[in-house]
C-alpha cells in the first residue's frame, strides 16, 4: 500500500489516476483511512529491535507514509477524517505520529541518503503537527495529554538541525526548519494553565533545558546555510530566515514551559536539579550569544529582541531555582548571578 501510494503521488505515468483521485473526495478519505492503519502498524513495529521489525515497516517507509498523508492531494481528506474522529482516536494518532518521529535514526544509515531521512523528518513532523492541532481544539485536559505525547520527540530536534546543516539542498533544509518551527509552536500553544504533577514539571524543565542547549546548534545550521555551496548570495537570506524563525519558536516554547512552572507558589525540592540545569543552560546561552560570531545569524541582531528574550528566560529560570531550593543564601546566589549576566548582556546589546 505504501509503495503504491508513493508511485501514485510522484509518477508522471500515473498522473491521470492521480487527478481522478484528487477529484474524488470519498476515495481520498478511504485511502487516508488505509494509510492511517498502516501508520499504526509502523508505529508499533518501530518500537521493536531492528532485527524484529517486519519488512516494509521500518523508519523509511513510515516516514514516507507520513509525508504522503500531508501532501496537497491527501491533506484535505486527512483533516476531514481528523475532524470527525473522537478524542481517543485522535490521541492514538498523535501517539503514533510521535512514535514515527521519535524513532527516526539520528543520521542516515548505510544505503540511505540524507535527503531520504530529511523527507522522513518533514513528513512525520508535519503529520504530528496536523493531528495535534486538531486535538487541541478539544477540551483542556486533552491539551495536557498532547504536551506529554509531544515532549519525547524533542531530542530529535538536535538530529534535525545536524541534518539540515549537512544537506546540500537549501530548499529541503528550509522545509526541515519550518516543520520544526510549527512543532515548537504547537508545543507552546498546548502548554496548559492547569495543575501539573512533579513528573510533568520535571519533563517541562528538561524540555526547556534541551531547547536552550540546542540554540547554538541552530545558529550553526544558519551559518552552514549561508555558505555559497548551499545558496547563492542573493538567496542566502531566504534560506537563513526559516532558521531565524525556528530560533524564535525555540525561545517561545522555552518561555511557555518556564512560565508554566513559575505559576505555582512553591516547587518540590525534588525539582531542584532540573531547575538548576535549565538555569545553567540559559547562562551558557548568554555567554555564547555574546561571544559567538554565529549567534547573530539566529538571534535577530537588528533589534536585540532575542537577546532580551534570553534575559527574560534567565530571570524565569532563576526564579524556578529559588522556588525549588531551601535557604536564602542559595536564592541570593541565583539573584546575583542573574544580575551579573543581565548587566553583561545589556552591555553586549549596547555595543
The rounded distance between the terminal residues' Cα atoms is 59 Å
What's the total helix number?
16
Along the chain, the helix and strand elements come as HHHHHHHHHHHHHHHH
Number of domains: 2
**Which word captures the global form?**
globular
Estimated helix fraction: over 70%
What is the C-alpha radius of gyration, as a whole number of Å? Answer: 22 Å
**Biggest sheet, in brief?**
none
Number of strands: 0
Please tell me the overall pLDDT.
Answer: 77
Beta-strand percentage? under 5%
Structural class, please?
Answer: mainly alpha
Low-confidence stretches: 327-336
Blueprint of the fold:
Blueprint: H1 2-10, H2 15-22, H3 25-45, H4 59-69, H5 75-84, H6 87-102, H7 114-135, H8 140-150, H9 155-166, H10 170-190, H11 198-225, H12 236-262, H13 272-291, H14 295-298, H15 305-324, H16 328-350
Characterise the protein shown here.
With 351 residues, the protein is mainly α. It folds into two domains: 1-143; 195-351, no CATH class. It has helices at 2-10, 15-22, 25-45, 59-69, 75-84, 87-102, 114-135, 140-150, 155-166, 170-190, 198-225, 236-262, 272-291, 295-298, 305-324, 328-350. The protein starts with a helix and ends with a helix. The model is unreliable at 327-336 (pLDDT under 50).
Task: Name some characteristics of this structure.
0% strand, 351 residues, 16 helices, 2 domains, single chain, mainly alpha
Please sum up the structure shown.
With 351 residues, the protein is mainly alpha-helical. The chain has helices at residues 2-10, 15-22, 25-45, 59-69, 75-84, 87-102, 114-135, 140-150, 155-166, 170-190, 198-225, 236-262, 272-291, 295-298, 305-324, 328-350.
Amino acid at each position: 500500500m505504501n509503495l503504491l501510494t508513493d508511485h501514485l503521488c510522484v509518477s508522471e505515468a500515473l498522473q491521470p489516476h492521480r487527478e481522478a483521485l484528487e477529484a474524488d473526495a470519498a476515495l481520498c478519505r478511504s485511502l487516508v483511512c488505509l494509510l492511517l492503519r498502516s501508520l499504526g502498524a509502523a508505529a508499533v513495529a518501530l518500537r521493536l529491535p531492528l532485527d524484529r521489525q517486519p519488512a516494509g515497516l521500518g523508519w523509511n517507509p513510515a516516514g514516507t507514509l507520513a509525508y504522503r498523508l500531508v501532501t496537497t492531494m491527501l491533506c484535505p481528506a486527512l483533516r476531514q477524517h481528523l475532524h470527525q474522529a473522537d478524542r481517543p482516536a485522535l490521541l492514538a494518532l498523535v501517539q503514533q505520529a510521535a512514535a514515527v518521529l521519535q524513532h527516526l535514526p539520528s543520521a542516515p544509515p548505510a544505503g540511505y541518503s540524507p535527503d531520504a531521512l530529511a523527507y522522513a523528518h518533514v513528513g512525520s513532523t508535519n503529520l504530528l503537527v496536523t493531528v495535534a492541532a486538531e486535538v487541541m481544539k478539544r477540551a483542556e485536559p486533552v491539551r495536557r495529554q498532547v504536551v506529554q505525547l509531544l515532549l519525547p520527540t524533542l531530542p530529535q530536534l538536535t538530529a534535525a538541525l545536524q541534518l539540515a546543516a549537512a544537506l546540500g539542498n537549501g530548499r529541503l533544509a528550509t522545509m526541515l526548519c519550518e516543520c520544526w518551527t510549527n512543532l515548537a509552536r504547537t508545543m507552546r500553544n498546548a502548554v496548559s494553565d492547569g495543575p501539573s504533577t512533579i513528573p510533568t514539571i520535571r519533563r517541562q524543565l528538561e524540555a526547556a533545558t534541551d531547547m536552550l542547549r540546542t540554540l547554538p546548534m541552530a545558529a550553526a545550521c544558519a551559518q552552514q546555510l549561508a555558505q555559497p555551496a548551499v545558496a547563492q548570495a542573493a538567496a542566502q537570506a531566504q534560506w537563513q530566515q526559516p532558521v531565524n524563525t525556528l530560533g524564535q519558536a525555540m525561545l517561545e516554547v522555552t518561555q511557555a514551559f518556564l512560565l508554566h512552572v513559575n505559576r505555582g507558589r512553591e516547587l518540590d525540592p525534588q525539582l531542584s536539579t532540573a531547575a538548576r540545569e535549565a538555569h545553567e543552560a540559559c547562562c551558557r546561552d548568554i555567554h555564547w550569544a555574546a561571544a559567538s560570531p554565529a549567534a547573530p545569524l539566529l538571534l535577530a541582531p537588528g533589534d536585540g529582541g532575542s537577546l532580551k528574550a534570553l534575559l527574560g528566560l534567565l530571570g524565569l529560570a532563576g526564579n524556578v531555582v529559588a522556588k525549588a531550593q531551601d535557604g536564602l543564601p542559595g536564592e541570593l546566589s541565583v539573584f546575583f548571578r542573574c544580575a551579573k549576566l543581565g548587566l553583561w548582556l545589556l552591555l553586549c546589546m549596547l555595543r
